[in-house]
Amino acid sequence: MIEHKILFTGTVGAGKTTAIQAVSEIPTVCTDVISSDLTIGKKMTTVALDYGEVSLGQSERLRLYGTPGQARFSFMWDVLAKGALGLIILVDHTHPDPLKDLNLYLQHFARLIKETACVVAISKMDKSRPPPLQEFIGLLHKNHMANPVIAADVRDKEQVLWILDLLLAQMEVRV
Amino acid sequence: MPDMPDKDRISLSYTAVSCADKEAVLLKSVFALYGLRGNINWQYQNSMGADFVIIGTEMSSSSVDLLLRTRIGAKQAVLWISDASLVSDKTRHVFRCKPPLHPSHFANELKQVELFFRGGARHDPSRSPSLPPSSSASLSPQIAALREEFPDNFYVRLMSWPSPELLSDDRFLWRLSAMLSARSMTVAELAERSSKPEDVCREFLRRLSDAGCLKKIPQEDHREPLPSSALRETKTTAEGGLSGLFRKIRVSLGLSS
Fold first, then answer.
1. Which of A68, A88, B155, B229 is most buried by its number of CB atoms within 10 A?
2. In this structure, what DSSP letter does residue B165 have?
3. Is B230 on the interface with A (CB under 8 A)?
4. Could you tell me the fold of the domain covering B6-132?
5. Is the Cβ of A170 closer than 8 Å to some Cβ of chain B?
6. pLDDT in tens, B85-135
7. Does the distance separating the beta carbons of B231 and A116 come in below 8 Å?
8. What's the domain count of chain A?
9. What does CATH list as the number for B150-221?
């Protein structure tokens, strides 16, 4: 069986598990535990990885991995990023400093972003509060990146598919 | 979509040939809707001389090829509803929609057709047929200027993701931008990969350039980026290598190619 990988990363509560669940053909394997960290704002949090998959015929499959969101599990990020075809970064707009959050992932995954493909999806976007989408675009520009930046509701499968469509559009022109 | 002031609206004709009944009904409905809301006042014309010719699923590839070569002029736009390949006549502006025809897909293509016509390549009833695209003497000033601004020997690359206002809800523009964010391309390559006419791509490139999102790279300065080690090491059983793999992923996810 030949396996390929797309990685979902991003802030705690941004919806990585939900996004993978939306498109996975199998029930998603989650490593969520009850959180003891009161600052992250949710009861359960991922400590190792989320895993879903999509079959690509008899002999190949696409694995969808979600990293744990909290930076203290960042040792897992590099393990999961190895060999990935592309990266989806999910950022929770309701966090206190979503730009700082995004910058963390842009810096950490800079090489993967430069060499493969990446889409930045801003979840729980509230247009009435800052920062606007344009500031996220500006942050990528400062990092010499021009990847797609999109506001998305990852509970909606169609929107997750659209994110994957944009990711594939980048991959396709690299070969 | 807001109503357009009358002075900004242009009148164009369309015709539809070899369409199945369902396709014909759907086309009429979308044109009726656009006639009220769009930038163009679309009028049906029962003739192949219409500005916009829609070819339905009931015409074979070889007949379409013949039609393009013999009956369609360089200033007309064509939309072919088919997933078959075309022995391409690049002197014609051929848009594509895959069957079964879906209203939103057709509406998206109609926006591109509108962009094509508003770029200046209006139908001229006195046109001579079969003008090649390089024949700048026959081009409208707008199209000629676009070709001068984005010549064939330049590469273009996205330097910053465009604002949501610039992209609006047009998925074609999002995809085009995503492609250009990954690597630099010539207009011809962009047109081939996006299956859109070069002048439609050029019109969008001009908007990106005006917004300061685009970099033009002369051919002599262009360096093809090396594929990543992840891509180089990727093995697949898909026909066509990595391109085939990405097609497989699209099919499995239910995404259009």
1. A88
2. H
3. yes
4. Rossmann fold (3.40.50)
5. yes
6. 665 545 567 888 888 888 877 887 887 888 778 764 433 333 332 223 333
7. yes
8. 1
9. 1.10.10.10
